[in-house]
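Posting here for the record, re: zinc ion.
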Amino acid sequence: MTTSPDRLRIAVQKSGRLSEASLGLLRRAGLAFRASRDHLFLYGENLPIDVLLVRDDDIPGLLVEGSCELGIVGRNVLVEQRLAGGGSAAPEELLPLGFGGCRLSIAIPQSGPVAQASDLDGLRIATSYPALLADWLAREGLAAEVVVLNGSVEIAPRLGKAEAICDLVSSGVTLAANQLRELVPVFHSEAVLALSPLEQTAAKAAQIERLRSRIAGALSGDGARLIMLQAPRTALSEIRRLLPSRDQPSVLSLDGRPDDIAVQALCSSALDWQHLEELKRLGAHGLMVLNVERMLA
Ligand code: PRT
Ligand code: ZN
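Prediction output follows.
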């Protein structure tokens, strides 16, 4: 599959934990799509950027062969394939995306002899992430046997295939349901924007940077609020102290009212009713809090 010289292609998980959030993020970055009949392809209607819907495990390979310039994939999949590929060219992580958070952890039966990581020496650990696990074992100087399983890793100890497992954990409910307990995390993951290792033309490199910056802008708007208020000039330093703002607020003079000011500040989502009530006590009025949809640094 070759890409068009003037359209970017981004690979996204077709159906799974990352699908909805990935497409939602691309929409918030300003992309609009029309689906192909087979639902494997989303044609970019307003920008020259198309989406290829695939299995998450295929995304690093598509980036390496150049079928796509960008992909949204779990860091666990990206780094596993990079480590497994030895020294060959691998996609690069451009931007962490703040969703799909999980950890790859070693877990052991709740009632078993293993108490700490060093007890794993000489035991068998079942996993679908052999390269990440082997990398961690080497760094820890442990000699455990890695048993590769492609699914249902959590039942391996009950089947007698391994004494421990190494699997993704988010809430921990699956481990508990299988009478397992988390011993040690070996890798922290979230969805990331990944870039093909192939060299891009100047035009495509510019489009890639434009999309990266839009996605970063959509993410930095998450939870951000713009607060606007008017207040007596004398209350300014107290107001500054109170606002959970990211940067210094803008302070504006008001025509014909030398004793008053208008204040605008970008705040985190930590701005709550209590902040507003305290600002009011300082003499602020006309308070307005707006959700920030997007920002461009
Ligand atoms: O069909 P395709 O191959 O595309 O999908 P998939 O089944 O391989 O992947 P999918 O959709 O399950 O996960 C996609 C990505 O989501 C993973 O590569 C991770 O980056 C991320 N992610 C985040 C998770 C989890 N959280 C997660 N909890 N992936 C899997 N799990 C599984 C885990 O393997 C275990 O079985 O959920 C179970 C544990 O969850 P808790 O909440 O019970 O701890
Ligand atoms: Zn998969």
